Amino acid sequence: MAEEVQTLSTDPEHPAQGTTTPVVTGTGTRPAIIGDATTGHGDVPVQTRNERFASTDVAAFPPVTGREATWKLTPIGELKALIEGGLDGSRYPVDTTATGGAQVVWVGREDERIGTAGIPEDRAAANAWSSFQEALVVRVTGEEASTATVVRTELGSAARAAHTIVDAAPFAKAVVVLDNRGTAHLAENVEILVGDGADITVVSVQDWDDDAKHVANHFAQVGRDAHLKHVVVSFGGAVVRVNPSVTLAGSGADGDLLGVYFADAAQHLESQVFLFHKADHTKGRVEYRGALQGEGAHTVWIGDVLIGPDATGTDSYEQNRNLVLTDGTRADSVPNLEIETGDIAGAGHASATGRFDDEQLFYLQARGIPEEVARRLVVRGFLSSIVQKIGVPELEERLQQAIEAELAGEAR
Questions:
Q1: In this structure, are 137 and 269 located in the same domain?
Q2: For residue 260, what are the CA distances in angstroms to 7, 288, 299?
Q3: Neighbours of 272 (CB within 10 A)
Q4: Which residue ranges run through the membrane (predicted)?
Q5: Residue range of the domain that includes 169
Q6: Do 298 and 164 fall into the same domain?
Q7: What is the pTM of this model?
Q8: Alpha-carbon distance 319 to 97, whole Å?
């Protein structure tokens, strides 16, 4: 398996050069625009990942051409209705279950939590933000473990917008599953607010029908001594793009960003991940794994980690690994790391894409296991290293079965 690994640390006597501070326009806790106040976002080169232009107004973004850094690997022609068109932002059917201190409610656009975790950095996210009428809020309180599941199966084929908030009170403990199935043509934003000392797992499952198209941006703010486990699972859909952006905002905050995906023929699965170490003594781990089979299967993973100037004592590592099962597939994997302080515990990144490990296959076959079975065991083990970290047994079992179905080429 071809592999590129780079581990970086800084010399305390020669810290990285600082960067300019972005200008914020607007009022209150929800700025309308972040970027250069005089020239917008097209004339000034972005010096660091945290300085990208951002706005809640779709009109503030120019039309997408496909030449933009954030869109150049995405089939934008298939997503035109979500990027440029009008979206239905009305309330949609949803099935929810909640236990313990979790509850699920709808709120209006005036809710003060909207916009506190982050705001859009691309036109599709801004289009969804400009279009939604109500937000679905998963509120978690109490120190006893809670669970909440949100299942969407009836979104339909019309282009629509959605906005979801996961709001965890200080010291809350919960697992929240956002389970997506059926047909959809969806652009959405998900905000995750993790209070001080909370321990929250958020799992987003994209198990769509084959014709679904889904563009999502997840924004998370993690408080002091809090922990967020964020998991992206993408198996279904024609084009699925889920971009998590997590800020470790409080001292001692901890973030685990995990992902698992399986792309079949002509399927496009994408995640652009941003982990921002803003506060001191934060810890971050990013690990995404995927498998590809079939002509035209395409996966994209871009991982950006930024260690800010105040993030002393940071410990961070990101990696992406892809297993190519057949000819005719393409896996794009781009890890990036920026460090703006000279005092860190450690930071690094890795990327690997390749075929089966011949030694593993030989080991299994030498013990009497047929080659086809051996290959399936290797793939299942490769992806299960992420699945088994979810921490929800019934969901883990369902995903294991989905992996078996993918390997067997069965319809799910």
A1: yes
A2: 23, 6, 11
A3: 22
A4: none
A5: 2-355
A6: yes
A7: 0.89
A8: 34
